[in-house]
Each structure stands twice: as structure tokens, then as C-alpha cells.
Amino acid sequence: MSEKQEMDNQETKKDRLLGDEWQGWSGDLLEYEKDINEGKRLFLTFYFLTVFIIISFMFLIYYFISPRLKEINVIVNNTVLFLLIIFTTGLILFSLLLLLTIITNKNFLFFRKKTGLHLEWVYPVVYKLASFFKISKDRVGNSIIKVNNALVYVTKDKFASTNLLILLPRCFEKTVREKVLEITRKYNCQVFIATGGSSARQIVKKVNPDAIIGVACERDLISGMTDSNKNIPIIAIPNRRPNGPCKDTNIDIDDLERAIRFMLKK
């Protein structure tokens, strides 16, 4: 990188207040992904690849320890194998029901009635696999959010939120902020500006909502979803960042209004 490019990058970083998730950003707008709109397929592909790796790894371990288990007792070996088969069958069945729910937009996950589905346990492996294939964390995060929202819309039962919390970023472009606040006033929603992950957690703890709509970048949204109370349904709306992260961001206002109407059952 030339000295001029390095200076330009530093100037780019100075004209905005970067959030915690962007502290390592170089400031290079040329390499920055300005418009991310991934489908659900990206995350689902890596999810099923992760499931395959987990199952294969577990059976590989069993293959190596099976002779020792048989030496201890045949019953011990058979019990371990039985439990492994039960776990594998359950994981495969769950994954197929998940896929069927996403494809058909009908709730086949009968055991989830309100909050959607929390798949945080698989995120670290998915991110590692995506990195191996040179797919950015933000693209994967965008796909994860699409899957999460689809599951909330499909599996959330028909209760109407009485304590809906809307979390907004501080980096909205001025006209977008005005439109967003106009929509939230229209539906009489509680709105807070979160300056980062720790700020969002403090707000959630204070308000104690029964449903949340979060607007932020993919990194902040995934972090918040991972740390959130698993009994609270969350709809996440990624912002668009034409000027890079944490500056003059925007969203589709219709997406926000749809989420509000859904949560309030308007």
C-alpha cells in the first residue's frame, strides 16, 4: 500500500466514530463491501457442511475408541454407539425440519412457537469455513440474519408485543433518521440509540422488552443476537453503508415498518 493510500485510509477512519466491531478496519473504501444482500442459501450451505463435519468427526472418534470400549465391556460400546446414533438422527432430523421451514415458510419446527430459533452454537464453525472459502464475515452475517428473521416470522406465535424495543444505530444519515423516528412515533414504540454492544445490552436490561427490533451492521446484530435472552424474539435489520461503516448509513423503511407491524400484530 502506498503512503498516500495509507494517509487516505487514516483520514477516512477519522471522519467517523467506529463501533467496537470495526476497530480493526483499515479505512480502505475500495476494498469495502458497500452493498451486501445475501440470500439464506449461503448460511444454510455452511450450516449443513458444519453438521456433516460434526457427525463425521464424532464417528471418527468412535471408530478409534471402539476397540478400547469393547475391551471394557461390549455393553459400554453398544451404549455409546446407540447414543451416537440417537444424537446423529436427532441432528439430521432437526436440520431437515429447519430447511423445510425456510423453504416453505411454514413452521415445521413445532417445538419453537415464539422466539424463532437460536443457532449461535454453529456460528464459529460457519465463520471459519466461510473464511477458508474467502467469503467475508459480513456476507455470512447478512445471510444468518435473513435466516433468523425468516424463522421469527414463521415460528413466532400470534401474541402481540406489549413492550417492543427498537434499537437504532447512531450512524444514520439525517433524513433516514427522521423517517425512522416518524415511523416509530406512528406506532408508539420505545426507541433507543445504541452506541455499541455494551450499550445495547444495558438498554435491554433496563427496558426488559418482550420483543426487539434491532437496526445495525451485521457484526453488531450478530453479536447482540448471540448475547440476547433466548426467550425474546428478535428481528434484525442490517443497515446499508454506502460510505463505509459507522457513517451516513440507511435502511429500507418498509422493512422496519413491516417488522413493527408484525411484532405488534397490526
Task: Give an overview of the whole structure.
This protein starts with a helix and ends with a helix. α2 packs antiparallel against α3 and α2 (40-72) crosses α5 (137-155). The relative contact order is 0.15. α8 (218-227) links the parallel β3 and β4. The model has no long low-confidence stretch (mean pLDDT 88). The chain has a four-stranded parallel beta sheet, with helices on both faces. It has helices at 3-14, 40-72, 74-104, 123-132, 137-155, 174-186, 197-207, 218-227, 253-264, and strands at 164-169, 190-194, 211-216, 234-238. It has two domains: 35-157; 158-264, Response regulator (Rossmann fold, 3-Layer(aba) Sandwich), CATH 3.40.50.2300. It contains nine helices and four strands. The chain has 266 residues and is of the alpha/beta class.
